[in-house]
Amino acid sequence: MAETLTKEDIKKIEAEIEERKLVLRPQLIEAVKEARAHGDLSENFEYYAAKREKNKNESRINYLERMLRFCNVYEDKTEDDQVGIDKVVELYFEEDDESEKFKIVTSIRGDSLEGRLSIESPIGKAIVGKKKGDRVRVPVGDGGYFVKIMSIEISNDEDEIRSF
After folding, report:
1. Cβ distance 37 to 43 under 8 Å?
2. What CA–CA distance (Å, rounded) separates 27 from 54?
3. What's the CA gap between 146 and 119, in Å, rounded?
């Protein structure tokens, strides 16, 4: 499945790939060579640990490159007073009689435990493009629930690309 990414997400991913290829890869290769030089590989924990880190780095590079190859570029066309990417939204959950703030992000930056909701989540899909004061039904399974948009603020905070 193709990830939906903003141009900023793509720049961050490209920077991470470059860092991993040009800085981390040579360091990890050197660590493997050093550990291999310590002798018997059958009982050389340092060698296996270094090899595991090198393979983990290569897997991350492949994952990120594949993501870029198949991604959909998302352009936020919302106005300042509408819910959209990189905006902090306060939602009132009618069923729970509670309010909570979330930053709306792409799925690669989404982390509901950190207060970042993906535009591809059920809540994200339901509220993108809506305005302060709107009451929105969030469809979930056969039912759903209602939220009210209490406030919308533009955020300048930087979010990290989620690891796997």
Report:
1. no
2. 9
3. 17
Q: With contact defined as beta carbons under 8 Å apart, do 145 and 93 qualify? A: yes
What pLDDT does 157 receive? 73
DSSP H helix total and E strand total for the chain: 4, 7
Instruction: Name which of 120, 5, 24, 163 is nearest 69 in CA terms.
Output: 5
How do residues 112-155 score in pLDDT, each as one tens digit? Answer: 888 999 999 999 999 999 999 999 999 998 889 999 999 999 88
Those residues whose C-beta lies under 8 Å from the C-beta of residue 38, and which sit 6 or more positions away, are 44, 46, 47
pLDDT higher than threshold 80 for residue 160 = no
How confident is residue 164, by pLDDT bands cut at 50, 70 and 90?
low
DSSP 128-160: TT-BTT-EEEEEETTEEEEEEEEEEEE-----P
Dist CA 77 CA 53 (whole Å): 41
What does the DSSP 8-state code read for residue 21? I
Structure tokens at 16: 């991470």
CA distance 114 to 155: 15
Q: Inform me whether the pLDDT recorded for 1 exceeds 70.
A: no
